[in-house]
Amino acid sequence: MPGAVAPVRDALSAAEDALRAAGCDTPRLDAELLIAHAMGVGRERLFIDADGGLQPAASRRAMELVRRRVAREPVAYILGKKGFRHIDLHVDRRVLIPRPETELLVELALSLPSGARVHDVGTGSGAVALALKHERPDLVVSASDASSDAVEVARANAAALGLDVRVSAAVGLPAGEFDMVLANLPYVREDEWRSLAPEITRYEPREALLSGEDGLDAIRALVAQAPAGTLLALEHAPARAADVRGLLRDAQTHLDLAGRERVTVGRVP
Q1: Do 144 and 188 reside in the same domain of the chain?
Q2: According to the model, what pLDDT value does residue 50 have?
Q3: Would 63 disulfide with which of 1, 55, 83, 139, CB 3.0-4.6 Å?
């Protein structure tokens, strides 16, 4: 890393080089996010103040943040936050980092009638439930997770955002009547684990990702538990779309932004 009085642009270049050498996919973006965070400014200030000197305290903070990213710790965990649709969520190693493809679950629920009751199973950070409540405050939204740590994170996010979403600890679907149940459950096959990026295998909670030999154990369990006729929206691996449709009736699979079969909506037989 550069010295304490080196220009910001030099600090960015050095960080970018270190992150690229470490195998990070987006070294320039990561460097900008980490150094801006260390300086306590928005990314736009890096370009405005590119010739300014990086102060000693900020330089030390930046060095530590870059060191963590070189070890392939996800940027979201380093910063302690992740944007999801129109909200910012606190995230740490107790929960998965919300992915863009999961926004499809929210989009599919936006067309529900006013006052509809929606439950988010396996809520993690609360991303899906909280984003939906933020965009559709008229809906009655609740959420649950089998992990008490995840429930703690989701409740804290709900409180920070001022959103009325009840979050409970439960394995599978809690008792209640729901017009739609959303679920981003674990769906990684056990034999896929070693092929995943270090950001995932070293840092994200394994139990929130793995789901048996074919990646469908958690989805099958939810379908078996939910009352007949329950409307489910299930996120899954694209390769498992046909299998998930086979578990439901009147099932339809929706594509994510990359054109992959990502969420299947149907009713429990």
Answers
A1: yes
A2: 67
A3: 1
